[in-house]
Amino acid sequence: MGKVVMYASVSVDGFIADERDQPGPLFEWLTGGDVPLDGSGALTVSQTSYDYVRPYWDAIGVTIAGRHVFDMTDGWDGTPPGGIDHVVIVTHRGRPEGWHPAAPFHFVDGVEAAVARARELAGDRLVEVAAGDVGGQVLAAGLVDEVRMDVVPVVFGSGKRYFGAVDAQRLLADPDVVIQGNRVLHLRYPVRR
């Protein structure tokens, strides 16, 4: 069974978006290099970032996100982002009526059910959990194996927190990856059990 990984780009002070859900400069590192990260040509990163990010992206089988992200992106128009096979949406409202019936999106109630469904769909591939409120809930439930963050040199001061509303201390192991790219620091922490 694949690992469950919590992931996002984040400001130095721990935010994944500002108060208006805007990422601001958090994704600039994805267009600030000379190595294409995907087939679109829109994402270009440093060679160092490519060597770290591309294998990770290729290993993801399923992404878990919350209904808020789904609504903000209009469900990626029914096509999972970044070539992901499936997306599991945590929601109390279920699948929107008439919404892309054949799209590989799965709507579940609760983070435990989301992780169970995602693991079933992913097999031995990674389950990625979007950081934020849902990611924090999955971490609090003890279901995250690894925390990855792309730390961008910006201070937001307020906004949407990387770990959402986690209300208790959680211990991570020492980072087993620390890589400096252009305008980004890639970090990977195993979760201590």
Automatic annotation (TrEMBL):
GO terms for biological process: riboflavin biosynthetic process. SUPFAM superfamilies: Dihydrofolate reductase-like (SSF53597). The lineage of its organism: Bacteria, Bacillati, Actinomycetota, Actinomycetes, Micromonosporales. It comes from Catenuloplanes indicus. Residues 89-170 form the Bacterial bifunctional deaminase-reductase C-terminal domain. Transmembrane segments: none annotated. This is Dihydrofolate reductase. Pfam families: RibD_C (PF01872). One of its GO terms (molecular function) is 5-amino-6-(5-phosphoribosylamino)uracil reductase activity.
